[in-house]
Amino acid sequence: MILRIDRLQIEMDMPEQPDPAAAAIVQELLGGRFGEMSTFMNYTFQSWNFRGREKVRPYYELIANIGTEEYGHVELVASTVNGMLTGSSSGGDPTDTPLAGVMPPPNPHHFIVQGQTAAAANSLGQPWQGDYVFNSGDLVLDLLHNFFLECGARTHKIRVYEMTDHPIARQMLGYLFVRGGVHALAYAKALEELTGATVSKLLNIPNIPNSAFPETKKWEDQGSHRTLYRFSETDFHNLGAVWKGVHPDDGEEVGVEQGPPDGGQPADFPESPEHFVPGYDPGEMAEIAKKMMDSK
Ligand code: MN
Ligand code: MN
Questions:
Q1: Is the pLDDT of residue 289 over 80?
Q2: Is pLDDT of 251 > 90?
Q3: Contact 293/108 with Cβ under 8 angstroms?
Q4: Which residue has the higher pLDDT, 277 or 237?
Q5: CB 9 within 8 A of CB 73
Q6: pLDDT at 106 exceeding the cut of 70
Q7: How far is the CA of 73 from the centre of ligand 2 (A)?
Q8: pLDDT recorded at residue 227
Q9: Which residue ranges form the domains of the chain, and what is each CATH number?
Q10: How far is the CA of 73 from the centre of ligand 1 (A)?
């Protein structure tokens, strides 16, 4: 089972300026081949399909817990896209042209179908696909794939960083550079334990350290790059069998932390009547919702 907590994995500012063109770029990190939906679904399916798990339990637990963290990364990128789109239309009378020019090519489709919200799609509006999930069942091959997936995801994140300096995109990227670094290193350590090959020597891919990006400093100062989270109150007590030893960047001991990160309050993005969101008369809907909550 999976428990849901109504918090974002980081405290995120409400942006002052929209940037729909950059939001379209960030979509790649949500629904692209190397986006958060892919890491989430790859590790989640691998954990569900894991056979003989009692014999190699630490590896099963590693994949399952990283998969759960990735679910929160999907949420974080979706929140970033929502924030970057908020305010991009002028509002007002639907019989004027409040949505004129809000979504530049190549993806006006996004705005027509989704309004000012995140899509389960890449930067071209192409939907996320189930065949992005790789699950051979061979543990070494799946771990090798996951290591590759994290390195590919890092490459795409760096390129998105190079395309936009929008403040919340960079807040999100700074955190995900650090967390992706943990995942790549965790899969490397798992492969090292299993095969003896020193996979961590391949890092960083691409060959630039996280410390080159100023937005990672806050997280590295807190030791987030050395921390793996146990996403359960009661289970998964073997994570430390894989996530152990020192971190290659600073030589300090890595460790497992009980429970998810503290995170921050998710934004309550404003209603947008020009998209009829959340309804024709938001005031009236709020009144109905209040009555429902009062009567429970
Ligand atoms: Mn991720
Ligand atoms: Mn990851």
A1: yes
A2: yes
A3: no
A4: 237
A5: yes
A6: no
A7: 8
A8: 98
A9: 20-294 (1.20.1260.10)
A10: 5
Ligand 1 mean position to 91 CA, how many Å? Answer: 34
Report the separation in Å between the CA atom of 40 and the middle of ligand 1, taken as the mean of its atom positions.
7
Lowest mean pLDDT among 133-137, 224-228, 288-292: 288-292
**Residue 117 Cα to ligand 2 middle (Å):** 23
Rounded CA-CA distance 295/222 in Å is 44
pTM of the model: 0.95
Q: Tens digits of per-residue pLDDT, 43-69? A: 999 999 999 999 999 999 999 999 999
- The amino acid sitting at 270 is P
How far, in Å, from the CA of 270 to the mean position of ligand 1?
27
CA–centroid distance, 283 to ligand 2, in Å, is: 40
Residue given tokens 């639907």 in the structure block = 94
Which amino acid makes up residue 275? H
- pLDDT of residue 162 exceeding 90: yes
User: Which amino acid is located at 162 in the chain?
Assistant: E
Least Cα distance to 71 among 116, 39, 115 occurs for: 39
> What's the gap in Å between 39 CA and the centre of ligand 1?
6
CA of 100 to the centre of ligand 1 (A): 34
Hey, which bits of the chain come out as E strands?
227-230, 255-258
CA angle 234, 237, 243 (to 5 degrees): 140
CB count, 10 Å around CB of 270? 13
For 50-59, the CB contacts below 8 A with 24+ separation are 51/137, 56/139, 57/238, 58/238, 58/239, 58/241, 58/242, 59/139, 59/143, 59/190, 59/194, 59/242
CA distance 158 to 289: 42
What one-character-per-residue DSSP string does 122-180 give? -TTSPBP-GGG----S-HHHHHHHHHHHHHHHHHHHHHHHHH---HHHHHHHHHHHHHH
Please check the confidence at residue 27 and state whether its pLDDT lies above 70.
Answer: yes
Residues with CB under 5 A from ligand 2 (ion): 39, 180, 183
